[in-house]
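Exercise 7. Given the components listed, write out the predicted structure of the assembled complex. Treat all entries as one system.
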Amino acid sequence: MNHPVPKGFRLAGVHCGVKSDPTKEDLTLITTDSDAVAAGVYTQNVVHAASVKQNRAKTPFDRFRVVIVNSGNANACTGQRGEQDARELTRLAAESVGAAEDQALGMSTGIIGEFLPMDALATGITAAKARLAADKAAFESAVRGITTTDKFVKVASRCLDIDGQAIQVTAMAKGAGMIGPNMATMLCVVMTDATLDAPTAQRVLSNAVNESFNCMSVEGHTSTSDTVLLLASGAAGVPLLAAADEPQLQDAVTAVCVELARMIPTDGEGASHLITIDVQGCATREDAHQIAKTVADSPLVKTGIAGADPNWGRIISAAGYSGVQFDADKLTLSINGTLVYENSMPVAFDAATVSASIRDNHETNLQFSLGEGESSIRFWTSDLTVDYVRFNSEYTT
Amino acid sequence: MNHPVPKGFRLAGVHCGVKSDPTKEDLTLITTDSDAVAAGVYTQNVVHAASVKQNRAKTPFDRFRVVIVNSGNANACTGQRGEQDARELTRLAAESVGAAEDQALGMSTGIIGEFLPMDALATGITAAKARLAADKAAFESAVRGITTTDKFVKVASRCLDIDGQAIQVTAMAKGAGMIGPNMATMLCVVMTDATLDAPTAQRVLSNAVNESFNCMSVEGHTSTSDTVLLLASGAAGVPLLAAADEPQLQDAVTAVCVELARMIPTDGEGASHLITIDVQGCATREDAHQIAKTVADSPLVKTGIAGADPNWGRIISAAGYSGVQFDADKLTLSINGTLVYENSMPVAFDAATVSASIRDNHETNLQFSLGEGESSIRFWTSDLTVDYVRFNSEYTT
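Answer.
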């Protein structure tokens, strides 16, 4: 992979002992050389990890210096001691780079209901601090340090030219559904060397998340720890982003988030298909989102795709029970570009051809048109296979 | 089974050729000897079968004479011709018993997107009319005539004594989740010989459905045809039900609906557990329903139970993302009577014992207490097994 680290950032990932495998990084530090802007978007789950609560109280702000991520233990459902541990972790991370505790953010992902091994993490912070760098090896170790059950690492980047000045946007994410006792989580850190104020960073990140991570599900089970951060170092040496240039940066941040969001259901437990759901012609974007998410979370739709079955009845009826009111007579559905349903009736189509197009491709496209308005959405999910159920039911505590 | 047919009803189920297997009944007639009261509750899916639309326009009313049910073909997603066929079906059924078309209701369940075999059904109506009876054999043939993929028939009854007068409530249902190309459906007919006015019948039925069929899901995929009818013949010869006696009838109707509702996830495709979810201490019943349904539809919770895994983290976090706001610190969870989570922390418990209690019993109980109010709900679902996915993905059109 070739994803430059934006200017002003140094990173490192080390193994400190949270994961049992000593070859696997389980602690990542991402630092900025001076005060930077940080924005965040977090899980809506009312049961959430201590780190989510603490980050939410800090962002957006312009005094960011360091984020510590540990993988292997989510520090969720750990009560007051968990909150103390989360605070101690950010205090140690801040101290290691000569910053104040309120300049540090934290993220934890992994098993829930167990206390963090604080001694190991303290030693790990010291080790990671010593290895902070901006080179490819440092970046890759940091990326591995945030993963848990991921089968592949998830990184994306864009290089921008704004008024003749180069801006880098580089992001990493982790997430692959959930397995065993782990409450797997979606984490993402977007780094840029653009110069932003805190409200702009928050606006750009929120917009990007709305088009990407909020349009993606593996099994609809929202984790306790989902966190997306945007860090802006300002180290490219360019002036504060002008309002006129914001769309360009927005496009780049959205693009990396979409690229990463698509990778998560691709890596979904046992998944054999990435399903892209386009819902068009809705009265509002919320309606389109509601329909897409309902279709994405239907076990009957997901098992149908796993079996390469162009079962339009399951797909149409899932849209129908989403809670959105629409005129069923105007609904159309295409599967991989073939119209299969129109005017409240199935359209004659070659089921064998459509089935083969599902079976022979990793990606399946479902396209709805509602005829109710101009709003649309694109949503991603994975299919539901025997392997998913096996992974998630054969573990016993 | 010993479930008396209430007075004033005659029934029959016959094979007419909708199903390919000639030993399987696929058409049922349920008639009353004179005008009766009928109330209905229907699917909320905006994509619904023609029969649902037509029944909804008629009920509640007091001129009911006959309901025709066919199984094997849902007559859903069949456009204008489907609507004409549904009207013709009720017209033929009404004619066979000497009634007007607006005195007949209809239900269809089975594959979607195909037109009804009207000639076969017309012949079947004549055959069924000739066999109408109130004996056990007639009742059993009628029950079989409404089933599709059900592994067992679903019937329940109660006998009431109101002011020294005997009232019979007997009900039949079908439903087992969904499989293959079929959009399996939940249908239920509750018969009573009590004397009710139409508004009372509708109120009693709606209340019963709220406590039973609306608190049950197999995979959260609402069918296009779900229908529950309450038919009151008044043939017991008792006076119009007094308001003071309504609670007694309500209890009986609710009880048969709950008994039938529990049978459906028990019969869920590939299901190995019936999961009973009790959510207590909520601010409103709607909150309790929302939490219970979210937990019931979580693939991670369902696969966990299939694997006999007392994975409280999945269960707690599913409650957390239901959309209901609550204080996570006050939440408690018990699995099969063992407290596993309290004060934002796991409670020390013997995981092997709880796991065995799941593995060794058909029924698993999850009990939440929220500490937010006095409202509660009981909800039923099935677990999610490898067999479910296999059934639902291995069929290819």
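Discussion: Chain A has two domains: 9-266, 274-393. Confidence is low (pLDDT under 50) at residues 179-183 of chain A.
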